[in-house]
Amino acid sequence: MNYLTNDTIVALATPAGSGAIGVIRLSGPDALIITQKVFKGKDLFVQASHTVHFGHIADGDIILDEVLVSLFIAPRSYTRENVVEISCHGSAYIIESVIKLLIRQGARAAQPGEFTLRAFLNGQLDLSQAEAVADLIASNSKASQHAAMNQLRGGFSNQLSALRQQLVNFASLIELELDFAEEDVEFANRGQLKQAVVDTLNILTRLIKSFELGNAIKQGISTVIAGRPNAGKSTLLNALLNEERAIVSDIAGTTRDTIEEVLNINGVNFRLVDTAGLREATDTIEAIGVEKAYEKIRQSAMLIYVFDVTATTKEQLAADLANLQRGDLPTLIVANKTDLLQADVSDDIPKISNMLYVSAKEKQHIDELKQRIYHTAISDGIDENETLITNVRHLEALQKTEASLIKVLEGIDNPITSDFLAMDIKQALHYLGEITGTVTTDDLLENIFSKFCIGK
Ligand code: GDP
Known about the structure:
14 helices; about 450 residues; Rossmann fold
């Protein structure tokens, strides 16, 4: 990773391959100078920031393309440097030729994430906002877009900086005590300090807890559909997806491997996994499938258990549920094939709470099922104003902050000297700072920005 920001970088900002237009972005002190060397049109140096200009890009006498050039003069740009965006026709040949030409004129090919890295280094974004840029680009549902957007707009950062400020105040009061160590004074009221730490811990705990939902929203909620062979799992999956995807057959045990499909309910992606029938495996291939099914259930965030309402006894149902349900795994029980029932659901059919009657084949109660899936996974719904942690790095930093603050609490309760207290508070501040980038290392930056695409 190159941390020099005194050169000018260039990259294609739009996806590689051909398209209607391709946008080439330059950032750095010489962005205008380099562009002007190859731009036939107006004098760019006398143009205002945030203006667009028509002209040609020429390599000597050869006109490469007709383009639009957008100017963003420092510091009013994404990177806070001079930025030029050249919109060319989206031919791979033209784009490559223009980029090569710009490099010959003094630009350097940008590394992955380098534009956003510069935005961070120049103070345009903090680290968690820079990460939100990557999340926003990768978002594939309303909920994941919303979480990333909230982070990009600084919701999370503001919350953290308020926490930081509290701790900084106390750290400095305690430092002051150290200066007057001989006089044995307490500037930082221990009662107030304790209350502030408890308040901060409450906020931290909420943020840490939000990761489960935040991560599920970002990745899609992993949902396993399980049940005995022929219960109608594949048919149900198809009904939910409204397409003929999984293989449906009358022969027990045909869904050998697991199939994963994405279903969007109320803006949240559910990754539905159909599993091989859960029963005593009769051959090895199937044994692998069954083992996979249990493994998938162990890894999943939610379970949909399907049974054939015409062919399952109360005992079988109880045995399956005892087998499948682990800990607090949200589980939805679906009684399938209600179309085969003579009258209304008879007394023979087991009645359990959180059970829904459907006919996968006749697509009855499928919309209701979708809503039940959503509410089983997200019991309280998503509060649009609540910050959701979606990033493992942030989670780990918050957990470390929490651990340090618990030490601070212990230090207040079993009085330790001010210098130890100050150390623990500083440690907490350090971990909090890692999230927004107040505290960074080259390794950390490298790790974050190398995961970006080039041009971002
Ligand atoms: P799986 O082994 O659990 O995946 O079961 P399948 O989806 O392959 O279904 C097994 C058989 O049950 C197929 O013949 C389906 O057509 C049938 N089936 C599935 N759902 C229903 C339903 O709601 N009603 C009826 N009548 N048949 C169903």
